């Protein structure tokens, strides 16, 4: 009789854990970044053929609101003044003109307020597209997309690719 009470007690303890919902995992919320003062974004535009020297650069909010624009005229470098209070992310887009016929539409996404140089290229376009597929233009998604988009073989991450005198690498044999 005593053993059946113990068995029932053990069973009751085990069953008391059933039906409880698992605690939800904490989702880290990213801080909202914005420009506290007017800032000038700058960079260059390139495609797989090299620098692109004509076209239109626009800075837009994800909602589509145009904040600034400039035209490249015989230069691949751009500068865009962004107003104070602008909340990131900000989408920089390059649209080709008739003079840059073999250029594609390219984008780069601004997600950090402390950086003001943003080049626009096929790589930045691929990273932005991957980040959007991951859920949007957040710093976390942009970082993940950049890490996934850059394929460096493991052999290049170590000293195995060293081409010089191995006795002089790192000061000699190790």
Q: Helices and strands in order, then pairings?
A:
Layout (H helix, E strand, L loop, with lengths): L1 H15 L22 E6 L1 E2 L2 E2 L2 E7 L5 E8 L3 E6 L7 E6 L10 E5 L11 H13 L4 H11 L25
Antiparallel strand pairs: 1-6, 2-3, 4-5, 4-7, 7-8
**Rg over C-alpha atoms, rounded to the nearest angstrom:** 27 Å
The residue ranges in which pLDDT falls below 50 over 5 or more consecutive positions are 22-27, 155-159
Query: What is the residue-mean pLDDT, rounded to a whole number?
Result: 80
Amount of beta strand:
15-25%
Query: End-to-end span in angstroms?
Result: 71 Å
* Helix-residue proportion: 10-25%
Number of helices: 3
Order of helices and strands: HEEEEEEEEHH
Strand order of the largest sheet: 5-4-7-8
The count of strands amounts to 8
Q: What about the largest sheet?
A: 4 strands, antiparallel
- Helix/strand/pairing category: alpha+beta
Overall geometry:
globular
Short note summarizing the structure:
Helices cover 22% and strands 24% of the residues. The chain has helices at 2-16, 122-134, 139-149, and strands at residues 39-44, 46-47, 50-51, 54-60, 66-73, 77-82, 90-95, 106-110.
Give a structural overview:
Helix content is 22%, strand content 24%. The chain contains 3 helices and 8 strands. The strands form 3 sheets. It has a 4-stranded antiparallel β-sheet with strand order 5-4-7-8. The longest helix is centred in the first third of the chain and has 15 residues, at 2-16. It starts with a helix and ends in a 25-residue tail after the last helix. Mean pLDDT is 80; it is low at 22-27 and 155-159.
């Amino acid at each position: 009789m005593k053993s059946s009470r113990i068995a029932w007690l053990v069973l009751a303890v085990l069953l008391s854990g059933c039906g409880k919902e698992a605690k939800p995992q904490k989702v880290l919320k990213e801080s909202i970044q914005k420009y506290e003062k007017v800032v000038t974004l700058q960079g260059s535009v390139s495609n797989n053929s090299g620098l692109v020297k004509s076209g239109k650069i626009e800075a837009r909010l994800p909602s589509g609101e145009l904040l600034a624009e400039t035209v490249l005229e015989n230069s691949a470098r751009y500068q865009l003044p962004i107003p104070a209070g602008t909340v990131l992310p900000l989408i920089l887009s390059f649209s080709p003109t008739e003079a840059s016929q073999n250029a594609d539409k390219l984008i780069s996404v601004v997600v950090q307020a402390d950086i003001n140089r943003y080049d626009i290229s096929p790589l930045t376009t691929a990273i932005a597209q991957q980040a959007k597929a991951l859920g949007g233009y957040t710093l976390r998604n942009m970082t993940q997309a950049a890490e996934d988009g850059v394929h460096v073989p493991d052999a290049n991450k170590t000293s195995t690719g060293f081409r010089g005198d191995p006795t002089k690498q790192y000061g000699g044999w190790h």
